[in-house]
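JOB MANIFEST
job_type = single_chain_structure
chain_count = 1
residues = 328
[input]
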Amino acid sequence: MSEATPFVTGDMPANHWVDRWIPRPARPYLKLMRIDRPIGTWLLLWPCWWCIALAANHALPASSGGSIPGWAPTGLWAGGWPDPVLFVMFGMGALLTRGAGCTFNDILDRDLDAAVERTRSRPIPAGQITVTRAAIFMVALWLIAACILLGFNQFALFVGIASLIPAFVYPFSKRFTHWPQLFLGLAFNWGALLGWAAVTGTLSWAAFVLYVAGISWTLAYDTIYAHQDREGDALFGMKSTALLLGDGTRPWLIGFFTVTVVGIAVAGWLSQLAWPFYAGLLAAVGHTIRQVRGVRYDDPANCLATFKSNKWFGWIVFVSIVAGSVAA
């Protein structure tokens, strides 16, 4: 196999730039963060960016800025465009908090990961890093993310701190409920609330509706993802919506995606977005139909590809919101 040919070691892509360019001692830390698998960062980031764009025309004045003197992103750039500084801040925050969350999950699941072929090559079960060092690294990621959070207004700061609750509960949820995807949705979509709070200094019905829509989206895409692991989860007593719904998953996916799209549409209506938003949302509907019709639950590679395609659903919704905001 040539050096340029992609292949997979367990659930981690090998021959990745992390393996080729990063010094060996640093590689386990980047792999704990899932730098080599960015789809999770995108899925965490999209609700943040959606709500930043959704709230752009409701932004605080610059004088109401963040907790750090002289650092005051306003949420509004010019002509209805969202402030790009907020996109960068939330992008960095999503990368750091997702990395911390994955590290926490790997610490908790280290024995389970060691027993499963797909996950035994992860840094902790593979012996590339100790639990103590992983824990220190996790705390460091949270502290750096907290520094970014300090750049927001005080209300957003409290909203961000509250996100630690669902983030802490989620890794335990697959041990006591068949709905861990719901708990993942509560954690992964908190950025919708934080995004609105960072722009406006408040919360609104539009933010809450978008939050619910995001939770339903997570139920859809992570149920698809969980179908890869049905046999292993059942063997080790873990629970998931994929195990619960089994071959009857498709009608549930239709319901989850319907709530997602309708919720996004209602949030846009509450924010008084213009017609380009609704036109773009039709493309998002088409994307969900393609997922529901194309996913094959007995094909792990197909489930993974369908799951990853939700990055493009996020892009479609984001562009639609920005277009509707600028045209409003």
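[summary]
The first strand starts at residue 7 and ends at 9.
The mean pLDDT is 88.
exit_status = 0
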